[in-house]
Amino acid sequence: MLLNYIKIAWKVLLRHPFYTFITLFGISLTLTVLMVLTSFLDHLFGSHYPETRRDRSLYIMQMEQRDSSLTSRQSGPMSFKFLTDYAKSLETAERVTICTFVNSSNAYVGSQKIKLNTKFTDADFWHVTQFDFLEGKPYNEQNIANGDYVVVINDDLKKQYFGNTTESVVGKDIDIENIHYKVIGVVKGGPVTRPFTYSDVYFPYTAPKSNYQKSSMRGGYVAIILAKNKADLKTVQDEFQSHISRIPLPGIQEGFKYATLTVKAEPYVENFIGTILDGGPGLATIFFGIIGFVLFMLLGLPAINLVNINVSRIMERASEIGIRKAFGAPVRTLVWQFIVENIFITFIGGAIALVLTAVVIHLINASGWIAYADLTINVNVFLISLVVCLIFGLLSGVLPALRMSKLTIAEALKS
């Protein structure tokens, strides 16, 4: 029976090329936008280079301190010392890295100024992340203990500073803010959309201007905790919170009297969304309102338009409906037929959208709009797109099917 419905749907498509073109154009365009959006979200939140182990990583991004009346608060990154005391000491974690968010510096090649994104890290940074070293190696604990002036740079900075040379630049000097550093390694760069790992230059935390000696709790550092496996995440979180709970309350931090202190180790998505929700109910309402509006515009409006097209397309088959009803076809059978036909058409549009999405993603990756963009159509993106196709087919097919199936035999034969 299902195969017969699909054959009927195919013949209906061939019968009216104009309706077919309009329907497939609307479906494929809508699904292309949704697939590209899904790929971008996967790019933002998925486990990708160089954070390929996000599925077993926890992120510590900020500390929040509130006064006793809960009317004032301070929040932001932490000091290197604080994270060393409360995160580095975790026994249930495989590794913990402490690093800064992206900072900025300048380098000069002759009279040309190069604006740099910089990051201070510890040696564990190169074990928690999985950078591809094109040349050389990362700095290690010995380099840090010696206070060596060494840096790891990305391949883009290598081209800008040393030119399009095929020779290794390991061991060569690079001047940043009038300080001489020796290049110890060159990595393939990561996207700017991954702020925990993105940078042009990576310094050991003992390099000048890192402020790692700061003794207070607040500072400019964040941390990534790598669990031994995904199942250990809750155990690691519990241990970290037990460490935080030992901090005596109330306290005074840089003149601010706080009664509560909150620091969380969370998976990346929760960390990202939590930062938005932490802005208060107003910001959260705006955020989810925008998401709802975008989803309605991308999925709801096209579905409504296709409902009208489908009603017109099915109206031409009113006599067929009347005859089938006259021979005893139940309403459920008729509804199921039209839904299957619409889902079949939607999946044809989805196949077209898959090709268009691949083209759009290639153009985005090659355009340079996002440095080192690596949008892909992976298994997650494909499965989500498949579900979206199914939902879209149901949304645009159920209402016309119900409307036409409820026609009386007389009404259907007159149409």
Automatic annotation (TrEMBL):
Domain of life: Bacteria
Keywords: Cell membrane, Membrane, Transmembrane, Transmembrane helix
Main location (coarse class): membrane
InterPro entries per record: ABC3_permease_C (IPR003838), MacB_PCD (IPR025857), Macrolide_Exporter_MacB (IPR050250)
Location of the MacB-like periplasmic core domain: 20-241
One GO CC annotation: plasma membrane
Localization terms from the record: Cell membrane
Residue ranges of the TM segments: 21-41, 286-307, 334-361, 381-402
GO molecular function: transmembrane transporter activity
Ranges for domain ABC3 transporter permease C-terminal: 293-408
Protein name, entry field: ABC transporter permease
Membrane topology: Multi-pass membrane protein
Pfam families recorded: FtsX, MacB_PCD
